[in-house]
């Protein structure tokens, strides 16, 4: 096993651990903002895995997939942030905050 293969294996292991911890946070996150941040982290880890695969396989076409996924994750985060903000505004106006 050469250095490149060892480095790729280590990266996959570390990303897999990060993915597992992030998914646990998505499932048991106490609040909606915690879950949104954890879901954003899951998307980032998956993007990193796709980029690592593109580098290790020598097929840069997978980077296009990673870019599209990053765009979708960004738009999803914006939508969740807008939802959380609007919910907080409704609670503030109704006097429950």
TrEMBL record:
It holds the Pfam family MrpF_PhaF. It comes from the Bacteria. The chain crosses the membrane at residues 6-24, 36-55, 61-85. It is a multi-pass membrane protein. The keyword Metal-binding does not apply. It is found in: Cell membrane. GO terms for molecular function: sodium:proton antiporter activity. Its main location: membrane. GO terms for cellular component: plasma membrane. InterPro entries: MrpF/PhaF-like. Keywords: Antiport, Cell membrane, Ion transport, Membrane, Transmembrane, Transmembrane helix, Transport. Belongs to the CPA3 antiporters (TC 2.A.63) subunit F family. PANTHER family: NA(+)/H(+) ANTIPORTER SUBUNIT F1, NA(+)_H(+) ANTIPORTER SUBUNIT F. This is Cation:proton antiporter. It comes from Natronogracilivirga saccharolytica.
